[in-house]
User: What shape does this take?
Amino acid sequence: MIQSVHARSKAVLQTVDPVWQQLREEAEEFAAREPALAGFIHSTILHHDTLETAVAHRIASRLEHPELGEGVIRAAFENALASDPGIGLSMRADIAAVCDRDPVCSRFLDPVLYFKGFHALQAHRFANRLWLDGRQDFALYLQSRVSSALQVDIHPAVPIGKGVFMDHATGIVIGATAVIEDDVSILQNVTLGGTGKERGDRHPKIRRGVLIGAGAKILGNIEVGAGSRVAAGSVVLNRVPSCMTVAGVPARVVGRAPCADPSRSMDHMLTDADFFDPVI
Assistant: This one.
């Protein structure tokens, strides 16, 4: 009888929340294979009823500090989730994005447990909700802790779409008036910054499906058009048209993007078919 009830509950969970169900199954396999880490996986995943509370617990444990304990941070995250249930949808899209785009990721469990790019992004989602709810000081405190603990510095005012992937993530800096739309991929040491001490709307707008290579700097209130690629190490100072590749210091258009969603293909190479040398 108990097994029958468990089977029905599992079937309902698979239908209602397949991401959480798969993650729990991966956690159970983890616990069986690594008994020395069974306590860790139970407290991080299996002890929780939802993906949202599990992720909130994991990130709070990474951000806790003598000034502010894990419990206080987790409570703030839970308030953010109550205020904006859409955070959970974005979280699931982000997990799927990591597994789709990162060749070293073989399980939903990996980003939730280990990947600081995923942790920094979810912490930002919580901080952004707190910012919008008028809790700016708490949001700024979280930004500071994420910067210190995870080496990712995103102003809490920045709106970020769903299905975003921050690969490696160390050294990412994103200014207060930047915008990042859905399905964007950003590698390490990327800056979305201003060009000086001007005020107002002064940071880049990254449209859907953009791929930004490692070490790229995009400066000023400029648009990077949907489906474009920014090559590693480039310094972008002018608008990037949609579906193009830019490279260089300063960056210029060097070719077409190979597909509508370079952020998903993660292809940083420019082939002869893509290349052209336009007059700028």
Q: What stands out?
A: Residues 1-13 have pLDDT under 50 and may be disordered.
